[in-house]
Amino acid sequence: TQNDYIREWLPYREDFLHILLDLEAPPLPRICKICQKDGVYRCPDCMHQPLLCTNCCRTTHASHPFHRIQQWTGNFFEDSALHMTGLQLHLGHGGAPCPSASTNEAPPLSGQSRPTTAGKDGDQTKGDRQDTPTMDDDEWEDVDNIPLHLRPPVGSKHLTIVDVTGVHFVLVRPCQCPNAESYPLQLFRAKLCPSTFDKPSTAFTFSVLDDFLRDNVECGTSGMNYYSKLRRVTSNVFPHLVVDRYRELLRVARQWRLLKLLKWSGFQDNMNPSKDGDLVIFCAACPQPGINVGPTANLDESWKYTRAVVMDGNFKAEHMHERRPDDQVWLMDGRGFMVRNPPYQAYLKATPHITEKSSCNNHKAISQASASRGKLNSTGVGATACARHGCFYPHSVVDFQKGERQLNMDYSLTHALSYNMTGIENVLCFYDINCAYMKNLRRRIESSDLLHLPPSLRITAGIGMWHVHGHKKECYTRYSPLFIKGAGWVDGEIIETLWSTLNIVSASTRGMTSPHRQELLDFQMNDSNFMKMIRMADSLSRKLKTARASVVLARDAFERFNKAITPEQQRNWGRQEETALLRRVHDPSVMDVFEIQLKKAPTVHAVELRLLEKSPRQGVHHGAASWITRGLAIEEAEIILNIYRKDNGPNPSELKRLTIARRAEKLSADRSRFIADGRIYLRVDDEFERSDESDGRTDLTLGQDTLDDEDAVSNDGYSDSSLVEVFGRASSNDPTSPYLPLPSKFGSAYCKAKKLHRLAQMELELRMGQANDALHGLRLALADKAVIFRGVVRPATNYSMRTRAWQMIHSIDTSVKQCATIYRQCRLAMISLGADSDILDRYQELQKSHLSATAAAFTQGAHDHRDSHLPWFWTMDIPKDTDSKSWLSEFYRIHWLRAKA
Q1: Residue 164 buriedness (CB in 10 A; 0-12 / 13-18 / 19+)
Q2: In terms of DSSP H, where are the helices of 694-835?
Q3: CA–CA distance, 546 with 156 (Å, rounded to integer)
Q4: I want to staple 308 with a disulfide (CB 3.0 to 4.6 A). Which of 168, 407, 428, 791 is the partner?
Q5: What residues are paired with 205 via a beta bridge?
Q6: 119 or 436: which leads in pLDDT
Q7: Which among 554, 859, 645, 619 is positioned nearest to 755, based on CA atoms?
Q8: Under a CB-based contact definition with an 8 Å cutoff, are residues 566 and 441 in contact?
Q9: Under 8 Å between Cβ of 536 and 389
Q10: What angle do CA 380, 383, 386 make, to 5 degrees?
Q11: Which residues are registered as beta bridge partners of 320?
């Protein structure tokens, strides 16, 4: 372990420290390693940091002009610089002096005056900024005290060169031959990139530019932070005295990014771009006719040559308004991943944003599509990537002007599906809100003159596995990749992992110019695709091994279901599956065959909605249905809390006690609000006034009524009590008290006498919906328990598998306990509300034996349980002329279809 290695090092720490201190002293005798003369300089960047005289130091470093040296002062070594030894850098002739240059001529450009002021970035036509270190007015520094190696040389033209080893001043002598290239080109051929071209005085080495770009993509290092590091490399004690070349670094880095992309893409010049996105790389594994798909391939093999794409928006990549938006220089507009700016702006102006109401849940991508943020030019970016391998699509990343609008994502999708797609007719598209987005996609594209999709292109819509659970229930089978034939081992969420790497640099792009931001984001996304490509073989190998192991398990699970049904059921259910898969592209609702098709009893929410849509009943306040529903929810939460408290025993852990306390506190607050509103709906004030004048029952105390176990529910809370008594008991601070001021707590006779019978009837209807919900949850839990017993617990072959299996069983047992307790409480309330015999015959008493059906009873065709019967609640929603096993048959149909999927 790491600690073991540290322990091994501990005995050496004193020795290491002594050596470290010894290295600060000069060797004895203090003589030059080469000529044996007096040694003055040493180079820590050279191996063994040799001690050298001035001449030997200059000669030795002719090929290493950017090493940092130190000079002996008589007491210690202090930082120095190679230009103080007289080192010169010769351009051309392999680093040798130019034979055409006079040995007596002045250094190049020495007669030119140095600029006295530093203009803004891009405004320096006479040269770079002056080399005098910049200091704040309140940070006065005596120039005479600036270390010699940090002072710009005076009297000759020295080039300021920025390298990974820091900032250097080097005397540069260009080639003076008649056919010599210009001075900037000579510098570039020597791997020095000049920052200006008229009279360059600053250059950056190729090494420092590569290092900056590498730091930027890997660590998200901004230009300011990187140059701050270089200043400290130059002088860790006086970094503020090092000349400032931060703006020059930003400018030259932009040029370097473009040159690197042109080189990597095989361009000899920048004059003839082949197409949009031609400077970046795409996924090597996705089918691309003419690149990785031969001309003889049969592209009609639908799933083999299907493009799988995923779209999403990222609101971390913000961009502020620019000061001078008209004064921009675009170096690679549209040749990377960001779309070309002028056509995109023209599309935005020509396309109105149409707000489409979603029939699904209120997702942020829809509800906040028109949200505007005035300080931002762009609120984020939207992108399309390949869903299997996680590579960004070239020329498909768009800026958001407000929220995640459909018109933005339409532009991204259509450009992504036009990239190397010749002949491909099938696309699997994932998007967080595809249930709403895909409805009118074709209509929106056909209505635009600037967008195009081939009419023959078949797009199958999907929603990622994480996001689909935030949609309404129907979206799961319609859009989950688990039910898309040919989707394979894909979750549709891979683009979320790409944002994490892009967000590394997003913060630094917030205040950049639009071209600079575009170039930096393009370079970052290109690096992301490159890293995906070089690791793709290993990644696909791991996924293949996992898929091979998983397909065996999936096949075994399906075979177990397949053996439990009849051949006729296999044929019928197979035809349902084939029909749904064929029609899903045009009508995703056909995938509802993967859900239970029996007509379900109305839920409590459906009943509440029906009551709210009706005209208000006479004598009932507006919102009474919602108030009663709140009471039922509080009652359920109290039951669940009691069961949780009992399951954790008398001595729960501190964390569980904290959880119980928090839930109890929330329940107490909900009860208080509910009781306060109840005074309005139940007209309590008048009742309290009459109670004060009467000598009736005044004892408001009652012992705590708790659930002793999950098989029995006390009915003490349901009696003919007065409003005064119920409100008095309900107002106690005990969150486990069963007293909530609902009509069922007073009894049907009292409600009729106090003219609350309409309110009581509303509660009865809502109680029936609550009972339906509880019984439905009970059926699902018991059926899942039977399947887990048969498919997980019994086949478990080791302790670990058995432990996980029984943890699943215990979790389901808790759900059974909760649903059964809620139903029993609900039935007692129905009795108190005066439910007639038809209602009570439908909602029968729930016995403990009803909750212990064996796994064999859930197995279709089990001979030893042929004559056994399931409890009454399995068939309560099935018509009288239907097979008594219809609910169970439907349950097996769903599990068979899903296991096959």
Answers
A1: middle
A2: 723-730, 748-753, 757-788, 799-832
A3: 68
A4: 428
A5: 192
A6: 436
A7: 619
A8: no
A9: yes
A10: 155
A11: 376
Residue with tokens 């002793």, as numbered in its chain: 708
Question: Can you say whether the dihedral through the CA atoms of 120, 125, 126, 128 is positive or negative?
Answer: positive
CA distance 830 to 760: 10
Q: Distance between CA atoms of 335 and 258, rounded to whole angstroms?
A: 10
Residue 374: strand, helix, or coil: coil
Q: Own/partner pairs for 768-771, CB < 8 Å, 24+ apart?
A: 768/601, 768/602, 768/607, 768/830, 768/839, 768/843, 769/601, 769/602, 769/603, 769/604, 769/605, 769/606, 769/607, 769/608, 770/604, 770/632, 770/636, 770/822, 770/826, 771/823, 771/826, 771/827, 771/830, 771/843
- Take residue 537 and report the two structure tokens written for it: 């073989």
| Residue 784 DSSP SS3 | helix
**Tokens representing residue 676 in the block:** 């306060």
- Closest C-alpha among 783, 758, 795 to residue 889: 783
Give one DSSP letter per residue of 648-683, joined into a string: T-SS--HHHHHHHHHHHHHHHHHHHHHHHHHHHHTT
839-862 per-position pLDDT tens digit:
888 888 888 888 875 554 444 444
**Rounded distance between C-alpha atoms, residue 711 and residue 851, angstroms:** 10
Specify the length of the chain in residues: 901
Secondary element (H or E) of residue 70? strand 70-72
Note whether 722 and 750 are within 8 A (CB): yes
Other residues' Cβ atoms within 10 Å of the Cβ of residue 61: 20
pLDDT tens digits for range 641-687: 999 888 888 888 989 899 999 999 998 888 888 888 888 887 765 55
Alpha helices in 313-391 (DSSP H): 341-350, 364-367
Q: If you ran DSSP here, which 8-state letter would residue 67 be given? A: -
State the angle between helix axes of 654-681 and 684-693 in degrees (0 to 180), rounded to the nearest 10. 80
Only one residue has tokens 């899942």, namely 784
Q: What are the Cα distances from residue 155, in Å, to 21, 243, 294, 504?
A: 39, 18, 66, 45
User: Containing H/E element for 159?
Assistant: strand 158-163
Q: Describe the strand order of the beta sheet including 398-400 as a list of residue ranges.
A: 398-400, 380-386, 307-314, 426-430, 458-462
- Among 253-257, 662-666, 751-755, 824-828, the range with the most confident prediction by mean pLDDT is 253-257
Burial class (CB in 10 A: 0-12, 13-18, 19+), 415: buried
Amino acid occupying residue 234: T
Closest CA to 899 of 566, 553, 586: 553
Q: Are 409 and 289 in contact (CB under 8 A)?
A: no
Which tokens hold the place of 501?
């790497």
The top-scoring range by mean pLDDT among 115-119, 467-471, 688-692, 877-881 is 467-471
β-bridge partners, 169 = 160
In 3D, which of 587, 644, 675, 625 has the Cα closest to residue 821?
644
DSSP for 186-223, please give it.
HHHHTTEEES-SSS--EEEEHHHHHHHHHHHHHH---H
pLDDT at 618 over 70: no
Tell me if 468 sits within 8 A of 435, measured CB to CB: no
Q: What are phi and psi of 293, to 5 degrees?
A: -125, 120
Residue type, 742: L
> Measuring CA to CA, how many Å separate 600 from each of 342, 849, 877, 887?
55, 24, 7, 11
C-beta separation of 484 from 301 below 8 A: no
Structure tokens at 155: 């009297």
- Residue 222's pLDDT band, with cuts at 50, 70 and 90, is very high
- CA 724 vs. chain centroid, Å, equals 54
* CA-based end-to-end distance of the chain: 44
Joined tokens for residue 667: 């329940």
Contact status, residue 897 vs residue 578, Cβ threshold 8 Å: no
Closest C-alpha among 882, 876, 878, 856 to residue 867? 856
CA dist., res. 846 & res. 826, Å (int): 11
Peptide bond into 29 cis (omega under 30): yes
CA 305 – CA 425 distance, rounded (Å): 8
The residues with which 161 forms a beta bridge, in sequence order, are 168, 203
d(CA 456, CA 454): 5
